[in-house]
Design a protein that fits this description.
alpha+beta, 18 helices
Length: 545
């Protein structure tokens, strides 16, 4: 049976609480016009209290005047057959409570910058309401929410936060029949002055936002007790659990913001939401990365979507060679360190060459040095033999090393002799020239032969040209390395900078050993990963692995 409240058709119940029931509804108009919205119906027993009705209507009228992008808009309110209702904007996304629960259940910590942005948007909406003045008298109305929690902060699918129920909490708090129900479950967000029954100002909402930020970052509340009496005692007299205990990688800047927002002495807190928002936005900008509403929207979808909707990336291997899934998701992409000041100057990255320059260093340059080294060593052996002709294949194998450790380069084309560069070569590359067939005429030479500088060497040049053929360039691939928290990266024993890296590493195709050293934790993590030619391979590591 279709149910109506005034002109609004109720579609289905969305939620129920100690004060009201919430329904998804629609309003119909001429020519097929429809608008989806939410109708909040006040519970019947509250409608029997005249004091509550007066307060509710007064606060609803004030809240309806708040027209701001980060406040849920109230369209209509009224009474039908003794039942009072509000018609308000429909938000198509989850509450922050749902976001926290889903992220925690799936082991996906929310990026600090995203948490800061969500609370920053709530600050903007609350600051507008705190500053709202009567249009006629221009006097501030002193509006305070009093009931900020993750349940009253909603997310749109476009990545925007909306504050809901502004002003209604005061009406609910005036009812002696609902007082215990209102307090239950909300104690964790109440500042000490509210528990002591003192007058409230906008700093009460600042404290509640601090608790919300703490939850977004850690999936925990600042105080551990769950029983009301113990929780009240903790809020009044005990220090909150440092957020870094739940999340060791938490940036220092956010730790300072939390400490000030949650100060028991409201004189030491942020004076208003403007000040809190300014520091949150400064933290986001200090990370050096943009954060758009579209990115926040994608993150919300990723965290709240069914697991099957996630996209898995290519598999890499653990240190023992076993396959390991490394999902390259927007969430992980946004988990790079945001507080650049945490990186000591001694660990700052040196400017990196472009990929093209790196490629030349990896193969051709190292190969040319190897060729020059062979010529220099051969000449030295001839001189030491007193002019005797020594076969190239019997000389000690020349040493070569690739600019990319652990990956040997192929034999290059002949290059003009140059100054020898001491290098070192993996053992498996030494027999390349020694295995070539020897020609009889070069087996030995009499002691009375001409000095080396006067002796012609056409035969040796011919042999060398036969033994050396141009090798194709080594195939390259890219490795996208990310770490949480920030880490110093080494590939095959060679330092490659600190995360976040400016670009993907260009490496020869094949297996590579990547070591992550986390300075803040004094811990190392090593991974073996296969880089495929012409492909981008992601490698994401956290210190907890």
């Amino acid at each position: 049976m279709t149910r109506f409240v005034g002109k609004y058709q109720l579609i289905r119940k969305l939620a129920a609480g100690g004060m009201a029931e919430v329904y998804l509804a629609k309003a119909a108009g001429p020519h097929g016009f429809e608008k989806t919205l939410v109708v909040k119906c006040i519970l019947p027993h509250l409608a029997q209290e005249p004091a509550f009705v007066r307060m509710f209507l007064s606060e609803a009228m004030l809240a309806a005047r708040l027209n701001h992008p980060h406040i849920v808009q109230i369209y209509d309110f009224g009474e039908v057959e003794g039942a009072y209702f509000l018609a308000m904007e429909y938000i198509d996304g989850p509450s922050l409570r749902t976001l926290i629960k889903r992220a925690s259940a799936r082991g996906l910590p929310l990026p600090p910058t995203v948490c800061a942005r969500l609370v920053s948007q709530a600050c903007e909406g609350l600051a507008f309401a705190h500053d709202f003045a009567d249009p006629e008298t221009h006097q501030p109305l002193g509006l305070i929410h009093r009931d900020i929690s993750p349940d009253n902060l909603l997310l749109t699918r476009q990545g925007s936060v909306k504050v809901v129920d502004f002003g209604i909490a005061k009406a609910a708090g005036q009812s002696h029949k609902t007082e215990s129900g209102v307090i239950k479950g909300k104690l964790a967000y109440m500042p000490p002055e509210q528990l002591r029954g003192r007058g409230l100002d906008r700093r009460a909402d600042v404290y509640a936002l601090g608790v919300v930020l703490y939850e977004l970052l850690t999936s925990h509340k600042p105080y551990r007790p769950t029983e009301d009496a113990a929780l009240m005692h903790a809020i009044l007299f005990e220090p909150p659990t440092p957020a870094v205990h739940h999340r060791p990688d938490l940036p220092v800047a956010l730790q300072r913001i939390l400490a000030r927002a949650l100060d028991k002495d409201r004189a030491q807190r942020y004076p208003d939401c403007h000040a809190l928002q300014a520091e949150l936005e400064e933290f986001i900008l200090a990370g050096g990365r943009t954060l758009t509403a579209s990115q926040v929207a994608q993150l919300v979808h990723q965290v709240t979507a069914p697991p099957a909707a996630e996209t898995a990336s290519e598999a890499v291997t653990d240190a023992d060679g076993a396959p390991r899934e490394a999902p390259a998701t927007l969430l992980e992409d946004m988990m790079a360190p945001q507080d650049a000041s945490r990186v000591p100057p001694s660990q700052a990255r040196a400017p990196r060459a472009s990929p093209g320059v790196e490629t030349r260093l990896h193969v051709p340059l190292a190969s040319k040095r190897g060729a020059w080294t062979r010529y220099a060593l051969a000449g030295a052996v001839l001189l030491m033999a007193g002019g005797g002709l020594v076969h190239w294949g019997r000389s000690p194998a020349p040493a070569r090393v690739s600019a990319s450790p652990g990956v040997a380069s192929k034999d290059p084309a002949p290059a003009p002799p140059a100054e020898a560069v001491p290098t070192e070569e993996p053992p498996q590359r030494r027999p390349i020239l020694a295995e070539a067939p020897r020609e009889p005429e070069a087996e030995a030479a009499p002691e009375t032969s001409a000095p080396p500088e006067a002796r012609p060497a056409p035969a040796r040049s011919a042999r060398a040209s036969k033994l050396r053929r141009p090798a194709p360039p080594a195939a390259l691939g890219s490795l996208d390395v990310r770490a949480q928290p920030y880490a110093n990266i080494s590939v095959n024993g060679t330092p490659r900078g600190s995360t976040p890296l400016e670009s993907a590493l260009e490496l020869p195709a094949g297996l590579h050993t990547v070591t992550f050293f986390f300075p803040t934790l004094s811990r190392s993590v090593t991974r073996r990963v296969e880089v495929k030619a012409g492909k981008l391979t992601p490698l994401n590591v956290t210190a907890s692995e």
